[in-house]
Amino acid sequence: MSNKFLIPIGPYHPLQEEPELFKLYCEGEIVKDIKWETGYNHRGIEKLAESKTYDQVFFLVERICGICSTSHPFAFANAVEEICNIEITNRARYIRSIIGELERIHSHLLWVGLAGHFLGYNTVFMWAWKYREPVLDLFEMITGNRNSYAMFKVGGVRRDIEGHKIREIRKVLDEVKKKTDLLTGAVMDDPVIHARTKGVGILTKEDIIDYGAVGPTARASGVAIDVRKDDPYAAYPLVNWKVITATAGDVFAKAEVRLLEMYESISIIEQCLDGLEKEKEGDINIKVKNIPEGIGTGRAEAPRGEVFHCVFSDGSNSPARHKIRAPSYVNIATFKKSCIGQSISDATISLAAVDPCYCCTERLAVAYDMHTGEKIMNGADIIRASAGQTRLIMKNLKMKV
Amino acid sequence: MSFKNFCFKKSLWVFHFGGASCNNCDIEILDCLTPRYDLERFGILLVGSIRHADVLLVNGSINMRDRDRLLEIYEQAPKPILVVAIGACGCTGGIFAEGNTFAGPVDKIIPVNAYIPGCPPKPEAIIAGIVKLVKSV
Fold first, then answer.
1. Is residue B112 part of a domain?
2. Which of A36, A370, B54, B133 is the most exposed place for a label (fewest CB within 10 A)?
3. Residue B17 has pLDDT above 80, yes or no
4. Could you tell me the residue range of the domain that residue B79 belongs to?
5. A225 or B134, which is more confident?
6. What is the DSSP letter of A285?
7. Three-class SS of residue A153?
8. Cα(A26)–Cα(A32) distance, integer angstroms
């Protein structure tokens, strides 16, 4: 114990874009324990959602996370549509899936770049981000904004993808495909990347199941979970695609899964565009007059894993309670397995490998008094408060607990 | 032009403080440094410590936990320092202004020299904002 020392990463560290504090307890160069602190990014979104109407909540949940800013509206739309018990039109389904998959491509390219940056290999960073730009241009063409697309609404989507835009998307996708080939080749064959990532931060299949990890993190360890297949939504049951898995569970396998998933995404988008050409233009929306009482759950596969939204409706025009669980919340817990026993330089890439998104994950933090060490509020207090809140809502909704 | 302001004419070194943000502004700031926009050709460089920086970029709404850190970072900064508030949240609090942990927009906490609104501002807007800032000093 005596020769253990502490290396803090963050909260405002140049390596990370987001505020998050990691404490690496090291002996020599080996990481012996890891702790993380949250709360720097807490914005009280679940509470804010209760004060907004259903149409406004879409703009709010979009801003939970800028990188997966379609997944949250996607899951929220699924949840609200479950309450209303409505089926959206096929054209809206295709458009939703196209936006979701374009987002996956841009997010995975972003991750490849950042992983290169974490390895100190800035060439990969620059290349990947350069190839990401055409995808953002597509978003700007379709939705009018590079991030935060505001495409979703209850009962459909806000904007149509017309014929000339379909042609443009196809053209850009061909270009992106070539660039992805180039990048995949460069990453897969690079001896430096092999040396830095193979056998680093291994998560076995058992670890994944124990921690309940989701998304590419789980798929890289051979657990083929994907909400798009397990609980199909939008246009995913209408197109052909397969779940990419790898078995090694190390950082390299995670990179491999993400790179190969981009090809699947491109193929899904192409099939969706084919489907879009067969549907009538402008048929993107069905009218929803009011949201009935009830509980709805919605799931969506974000680039990082499963996003889960649960909405309690009391029949008014805003949610009575809105519960959100983002994928990074479970993935971050795997750091305990993947980082301990690594050297410090490998620990950082193991941290980056699950593509952690702290702004999704942010929870009310447990605070300690700095001088007395006294817990100001502990986990059990929060659970008690939350359970009490839920009971109150159930009582107000006259539902059985 | 004073000697201090003359220093701002050359390469500006930037420290990035991401408050309670949604990450959008963060990635657009990084985007400015990557090949398409490439701010490094003007000598604008992201640095790891506020003690090396000429400009403090602040984005995101500031929550109660961030406020003290932001003040601390501002106090550590070598003066004169230019503070830029980026994004709707940085300028006014944006959609999170009604949140229960919101501690005020950036200009309520530290003095701000330039505002770049947008959710998120496009890299072009960020570059235009920085150019205006450099011209104004």
1. yes
2. A370
3. yes
4. 15-136
5. A225
6. B
7. strand
8. 5
- Can you name the residues that pair with B63 across neighbouring β-strands? B102
Chain position carrying tokens 């400015």: B32
Closest CA to A22 of A43, A7, A3, A5: A7
Q: Read off the pLDDT of each residue in A324-342 and give the average, rounded to a whole number.
A: 88
A392: distance to nearest CA of chain B, Å? 20
- Residue B123 belongs to a domain with what CATH number? 3.40.50.12280
User: CB neighbours of A89 closer than 8 A, spacing ≥ 6?
Assistant: A156, A279, A283, A284, A285, A286
For residue A121 the two structure tokens come to 């290999």
In whole numbers, what is the pLDDT of chain B averaged over residues?
87
Cα separation, A78 vs A71, whole angstroms: 10
Residue A1 has pLDDT above 60, yes or no: no
Count of domains in chain B?
1
Contact A12 B69 (CB under 8 A): yes
pLDDT tens, position by position, A224-239: 999 999 999 999 999 9
Average pLDDT over residues B89-102: 86
Q: What is the mean pLDDT of residues B53-73?
A: 89
CB A214 within 8 A of CB A303: no
Residue B26 covered by a domain: yes
Q: What ipTM was reported for this prediction?
A: 0.91
- pLDDT of residue A15 exceeding 80, the answer is no
Q: What is the pLDDT of residue A14?
A: 72
Domain assignment present for B4: no
Confidence label for A41 from pLDDT (cuts 50, 70 and 90): confident
- The total of other beta-carbon atoms located within 10 Å of residue B104's CB is 14
- Residue A390: the pLDDT is 72
Domain regions of chain A by residue span: 45-326
On whether residue B101 sits in a domain, the answer given is yes
CB contact under 8 A, A359 and B28: no
> In angstroms, rounded to a whole number, what is the distance separating the alpha carbons of residues A305 and A218?
9
Q: Which of A9, A12, A114, A359 to mutate to test the interface with B (most CBs of B within 10 A)?
A: A12
Q: Render B60-116 in DSSP notation, one character per residue.
A: SB-BHHHHHHHHHHHHHSPSS-EEEEEHHHHHT-GGGTT-TTB---HHHHS--SEEE
The letter for the amino acid at A296 is G
At A133, the pLDDT band (50, 70, 90 cuts) reads very high
CATH number of A45-326: 1.10.645.10
- pLDDT value of position A370: 64
Nearest by CB to B26, from A17, A125, A148: name it.
Answer: A17
Answer yes or no: is pLDDT of A104 > 80: yes
Q: Is the peptide bond before B80 cis (omega within 30 degrees of 0)?
A: yes
Residue of B13, B14, B27, B30 to mutate, testing the A interface (most A Cβ within 10 Å of its Cβ):
B27
Using omega within 30 degrees of 0 as the cis cutoff, is the peptide bond preceding A11 cis?
Answer: yes
Residue of B nearest to A59 (CA): B95
Query: Treating both helix axes as pointing N-terminal to C-terminal, what angle do B24-33 and B123-136 enclose, rounded to 10 degrees?
Result: 70
